[in-house]
Amino acid sequence: MLDTRNVSIRRASVGSMDNNVYVLTAKNSGVQVLIDAADDFPRIQELLDAGAADSSSGKAAVRMIITTHSHWDHVRALAEAKAATGARTAAGGPDTADIEVPTDVPLSHGDVLDFDGFDLEVIALRGHTPGSVALVYRDPEGPSHLFTGDSLFPGGVGNTQKDPERFNSLYRDVVERIFEQFPDETLVHPGHGAGTTLGAERPHLGDWKERGW
Question: What does the alpha-carbon distance between residue 203 and residue 201 come to, in Å, rounded to a whole number?
Fold first, then answer.
């Protein structure tokens, strides 16, 4: 668990593909956001319950379930999570047609989502899928937190199936919308595996571009 002044950030790895699920809980209001209901809803419920203890009231409610992109391994528990919480669903606009559970809030680049205690900014990162998004929480007392789905990992950008057009699109968005906008201490929380910082990855941008993946 990462503890900030206004928000707690909890993570669990679920499913056979080591998908990361994130729960953000506003300490003042108990509002929660679930990022990528990937699999294993009982484990996700445990994460939500743990997050509830981080609010000043000890109570919490999921306001929104945000899907970073439409790939099957990121949505396996989405229907169950929506049914259990009654929360609105959100995803990047171009990906919504490929998500079986209807999307209540199509997201666009530059959107700012207000959750009664914290905001999340939407960054479109086109290439892994057309509607992939990252989400930014700007901690007023510490580094920003980037939830990047499968668009940015330690060691490179997401898989673009060796398609030069898709790779160039994703690489350009990652450089222009992330690395040129945020400092080195920014924390990256990817859709699978361990996290990183922009400072750890920045020296390798040229290598990524040269290799094409």
Answer: 6
Show the tokens assigned to 119. Answer: 């905001």
The rounded distance, in Å, linking the Cα atoms of 21 and 156 is 20
The 3 state secondary structure assigned to 24-58 is EEECCCCEEEEECCCCCHHHHHHHHHHHHCCCCCC
In sequence order, the β-bridge partners of residue 91 are 67, 106
Distances (CA, A) of 62 to 2, 26, 44, 105: 18, 10, 12, 15
In sequence order, the β-bridge partners of residue 189 are 147
* Residue-wise pLDDT tens digits, 82-106: 999 999 999 999 999 999 999 999 9
CA 130 to chain centre: 16
Going through the chain in order, the beta strands assigned E by DSSP cover: 2-3, 7-14, 19-26, 31-35, 61-67, 88-92, 105-107, 112-114, 119-124, 133-137, 145-149, 152-153, 156-157, 187-190, 196-197
Tell which residue, 122, 123, 121, 90, has the closest CA to residue 104.
Answer: 90
Report whether 146 contacts 182 (CB < 8 A).
yes
Per-residue pLDDT of 148-160, as tens digits, reads 999 999 999 999 9
Distances (CA, A) of 123 to 30, 57, 110: 25, 32, 6
pTM for the model stands at: 0.97
- Burial class of residue 56 (count of CB atoms within 10 Å of its CB; 0-12, 13-18, 19+): exposed
Whether the Cβ atoms of residue 38 and residue 77 lie closer than 8 Å to each other: yes
